[in-house]
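STRUCTURE:
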């Protein structure tokens, strides 16, 4: 990839919307696949009462729109200002209680798991029907749009083209608990190819820091795909 193309992918601009300032990709096609579009606000004339507690709006009780769902609420039901990174807002924005709870949960992905994905981890990678796996470092690109695989060869898979993900596990720890993640299988649409391509990631057998990093990366990728499916369902 040329440095010019990479710069275009990562270029951003500051825009002002009715909901606040947003730092968005300069080219819409290079936006994060985990992002959400701003909702259409419910028109003022269609919401004479709070859509949560049914309080009637008047001169003293003002109406506010939740920046995440676009519905109309009173200040009591929509008074929290919470970061909304999936819509690229620079500052925390007003959200209803239900949406604020969701945004708080998503903050963990951006604060912790996204950093894990960007840092990458080492796996044995099997592309399609390849007979032997290749040791590669897998990481998310800085603009969050591509899964980068780097070893003796180099590949990139567009995150938005991933259609199915399965976490591979083995055994159960002594004393109960969840099965241990050992890898991941992904299906994706390869450009110019018919049907679906498959990619398999397998963590190494060592029990050291590399294995822990790989396990953390698998958990983060699983969370990322959940956000991806939510974006598609918007």
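SEQUENCE:
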């Amino acid at each position: 990839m040329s440095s010019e193309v990479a710069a275009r992918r990562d270029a951003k601009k500051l825009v002002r919307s009715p909901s606040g300032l947003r730092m968005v990709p300069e080219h819409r096609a290079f936006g994060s696949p985990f992002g959400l579009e701003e909702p259409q606000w419910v028109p003022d004339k269609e919401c004479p009462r709070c859509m949560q507690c049914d309080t009637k709006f008047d001169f003293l009780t003002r109406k506010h729109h939740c920046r995440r769902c676009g519905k109309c609420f009173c200040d009591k039901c929509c008074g929290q200002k919470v970061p909304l990174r999936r819509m690229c807002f620079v500052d925390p924005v007003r959200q209803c209680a239900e949406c604020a709870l969701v945004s708080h949960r998503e903050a963990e992905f951006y604060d912790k798991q996204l950093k894990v994905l960007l840092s990458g981890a080492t796996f044995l990678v099997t592309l399609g029907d390849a007979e032997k796996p290749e040791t590669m470092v897998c990481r998310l690109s800085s603009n969050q749009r591509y899964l980068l695989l780097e070893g003796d060869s180099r590949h990139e898979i567009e995150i938005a083209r991933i259609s199915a993900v399965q976490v591979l596990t083995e055994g159960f720890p002594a004393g109960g608990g969840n099965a241990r993640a050992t890898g991941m299988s992904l299906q994706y649409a390869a450009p110019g190819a018919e049907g679906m391509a498959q990619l398999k990631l397998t963590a190494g057998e060592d029990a050291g820091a590399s294995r822990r990093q790989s396990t953390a990366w698998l958990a983060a990728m699983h969370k990322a795909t959940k956000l991806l499916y939510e974006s598609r369902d918007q």
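REMARK: The CA atoms of residues 17 and 107 lie 22 Å apart.
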